[in-house]
Amino acid sequence: SCPYNKPDFWHHRLVDAQNVISPGPVHSFMREMDIFFGYGKVLEGVPRAGSMGLLLFGLSGIVILTFTLRYTFAKRKKLPAPVAEPAVPVEAVTPAISRKEKPARVPVLGKSLTVGLRYLAYVALVVAFVVGMTSEGKDYESMVRAKFKGQKLTKVNDDPVVFHLGEKGDGPGNYVLIQEGQGYGGPFVLGIRIMEDAKVHEVIPLDHKETPAFVRKIQDAHYRDQFVGKHVADDFIVDVDIDAVSGATITTMAATEAIRKGAHLAAVEKFKLEQKWKKV
């Protein structure tokens, strides 16, 4: 009879705490490391290049720091004791004696090891740069193809990314507009299916790095069906024309924001409509 002995009691307390505490950099970093080492969900079409780049940058930073310390803490050779000046005219002293010799440095690391670390640092920086550049673009096409197998897919726009489904001129226009959002535990990718009637016909979760318990809320048909049939110029505001979902407030609000942004982009750029919706 004691409520503390019921599993649901602690589950709901945990969900409440996660909704109150916004994700910080440490939380996001730990999720990224989980995904990199294979404990999290591996995204379809999204390489782990972000984590690899972070790891390579860290490695190159350690190597460069070691190389810098080699000079900072190098020991200096002791200069020989001063020798009494010879009893000769100053003019007879050679210029080599009049110049002060700089103290030599004794390398802490071996010469070959130092050179190797230097080249390793350069290579790590170059590889990290290349990996970072190649990881910028996500493979949205593979994500959409996985959901619409057997249908012809044509990319018709880059910003925002829009795909046309089926043959051009074959029936009404059938488009999938790609939008991303930031949930509680990580980003997610949605496809918004819009027809020539300027209405939303489907919301398709394509990929995510979100906490599984939260992403299930936006994958639920009850949440996604709220958008079906809505005009692209509608407001799409939580608690106004869209119902909130308890237990995943941050994630569902982020998903609604992504859908609203995509629909309004289609309203302006595709259907050439004037803005009449409420600003959030």
How would the blueprint of this fold be written?
Blueprint: H1 7-20, H2 25-36, H3 49-72, E1 75-76, H4 95-98, E2 105-106, H5 111-134, H6 140-147, E3 153-158, E4 161-165, E5 174-182, E6 187-195, E7 200-208, H7 212-219, H8 221-224, H9 249-270
Antiparallel strand pairs: 1-2, 3-4, 4-5, 5-6, 6-7
What does this structure look like?
With 280 residues, the protein is α+β, with helices and mostly antiparallel strands. Helices cover 43% and strands 15% of the residues. Strands 3-4-5-6-7 form a five-stranded antiparallel β-sheet, with helices on both faces. Strands 1-2 form a two-stranded antiparallel ribbon. 22% of the residues are buried. Residues 9-27, 33-49 and 75-79 have low confidence and may be disordered. InterPro entries: FMN-bd (IPR007329), Ion_transpt_RnfG/RsxG (IPR010209). One of its GO terms (biological process) is electron transport chain. Pfam families: FMN_bind (PF04205).
| Poorly predicted residue ranges | 9-27, 33-49, 75-79
For the record, the count of structural domains works out to 2
Mean pLDDT: 74
Radius of gyration: 31 Å
Shape: elongated
Strand/helix succession: HHHEHEHHEEEEEHHH
State the major sheet: 5 strands, antiparallel
Q: Notable features of this structure?
A:
280 residues; alpha+beta; 2 domains; five-stranded antiparallel sheet; two-stranded antiparallel ribbon; 9 helices; 7 strands; 43% helix; elongated; FMN-bd; transmembrane helix; phosphoprotein; membrane; FMN
At a glance:
One of its GO terms (cellular component) is plasma membrane. With 280 residues, this protein is α+β, with helices and mostly antiparallel strands.
